[in-house]
Amino acid sequence: MSDADPADASPATDRDYAEWLDAFADGGGFALVCPDGHGSLPPRRVCAECGSTDLSREPLDEMGTVETYSVVHVPSPRFADDAPYATAVVDFGPTRLTGIVRDGGADGDAPAVEIGDAVAVDVGERVTDGERLVVFRPAGES
Ligand SMILES: [Zn+2]
């Protein structure tokens, strides 16, 4: 998975992704699913697996399962004030989401997640510059 720099994105791509984040923030998160059941996420318009352009919006569960994660202690400049944090790939059934994990605490410890943990997905803001991004919270925490 590429770590696309938003500066490289076209305005249309930014709008699609912003709309997707808006939907999530309103509790209406969705994935784009092709007729073969492959899941994608905006701003993608073509199925990454089979090339289908017949993508329909399917509701995305608010809970997913951590597939892999890594704790970042030395972040890129865009995340300078967010460290330490963990990035995680979370399985949401038809698709996966990549985001950062927060435990809601401000004690400077990296969030504790393990592969297989259930996490809730939310839309948060990057501490460093206020950009919106996908945030995972360990299940059971408010
Ligand atoms: Zn497909």
Automatic annotation (TrEMBL):
It holds the Pfam family OB_ChsH2_C. InterPro entries: ChsH2_C (IPR002878), NA-bd_OB-fold (IPR012340), Thioester_dehydratase-like (IPR052513). Coiled coil: none annotated. Residues 60-122 form the ChsH2 C-terminal OB-fold domain. This is ChsH2 C-terminal OB-fold domain-containing protein.
